[in-house]
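Why does residue order matter? Because the sequence determines the fold. Keep that principle in mind as you read this record.
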Amino acid sequence: MNRLIVSAISFTIATTLVACSFNKQSPPSETNNRPAQNGNKQAPASAETTPSQAQPGELQPGQASGTYTAKGEVVELKYAYAGRAVRFGSESLVILLTEKPIPAEAIAEEIKSTPLLEGEKIRGLEYAIEENGMWVRFHPSQYQESGSNKLKEYKVENDIVRGVDDGDSLSDKYARSVKFVAVINK
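Structure:
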């Protein structure tokens, strides 16, 4: 009887060991090294669901990209600033796109009266946007154009102004192709 019990226990242990070895997962390989599929999978976040996150490659507030050409000289623009100031007797949204950063303590004055741009300490474009028009001045050449608002993708939202300007200049010596995102300085 003892032999029968020992044989039964041995058989049970052997069967259990064999069953366990078949249920073991194989080691990871290229074909099965994937996360488990779950029916409760969340969709990846999109720009519509997370508007505060910028998409890769998008400009961040304070950045510009592109160039302008004045008298054959090409200037790369990297920085963007905005604020309200008086231009031509009325309050305008002023946008400055520059090749070098404007020191933080000088931004308000630069938006108001452009001493660094006019003093040729930095180069860039100065825009004045009004309800029905736009004016742009190239610094340091002082070439100016005005007309209807020709900015593309232009919008002001939550104190941030965005735009694209592929301005066709009236002169063969001047051109601009820029994008910008600027926080409106108060």
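Confidence is low (pLDDT under 50) at residues 4-52.
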